[in-house]
Amino acid sequence: MKRMLKSLGIALAVAVSVSACAPTAQNTAQSLAVEQQRSQKHVQDLDRKGALMKDRGLNSYLNSVVNRIAPQRPPGSVPLKSYIVKSADVNAYTTGGGYMFYNAGLMAAMENEAQLAAVVAHEIAHIDRGHIPAKTANNQAVQLGAAAAAIGGALLGVPGQVTELAVGVGANAYASSYSRTQERDADSTGVQYLSAAGYNAAEGARSFKVLQELYGNERGVFATHPAPGERFANLTTQAKQLGATKGRVGNETHDAAVRKLRRDVLKFYESEGRTKEASLIRRNLRN
Asked: What is the pTM of this model?
């Protein structure tokens, strides 16, 4: 349980403050080039191990969410590339340079498109606010290498769909180096993106109700981050301040896109005895 909570912690964070603090580093042509080169290597490592989902429908759906948020970014922002990792753990992370990775478990666990979009907006904010170049290049390389190396040659779980890949181990270490200031900066920027894109940001906040239901208010290695219950309350407040309590939720669209994936994830959870997660996915399938 704690492993999945740690993964969930990087998907999204929330702060009461509406004003974003300055980024800890500036994106430059040089820093973006380094990030893109490193990210491309990470993609190649994952692809070589069969860890990336090739389902056109799922990838198209994820890209449609990204494309709703992308126009809300500052002019000249780096182009975005999104990938779905064959992992049942609920996790999302960015390696910078516009590259973002979303685990199959995350897409299955989110109840609707607004909740998924909240995660997407947060990851984009980390990129745009210069949080990646603030880390040391050596640490980035080591952590991404750990993420790729942790993936075994054989895929467990449902063949070709979802597996208990350990990619989250490296990804968690990579993301946990974000400071409280950076997380709050990404919180504020992300929720503004979400609102400007026409999403119901208050519904997006309910992603943390999912966390609370499954894992309580534990924070694991993310001890400097707000607990799920606090994040839900803070994001709901911010959504009200932005007038973003209405807008796109996307229940039916999300269900249609991820229903088959949810069945595959459910099979894996059941086979592993992960009862709380399985219960959540069954409920999502009924709704």
From this structure: 0.82
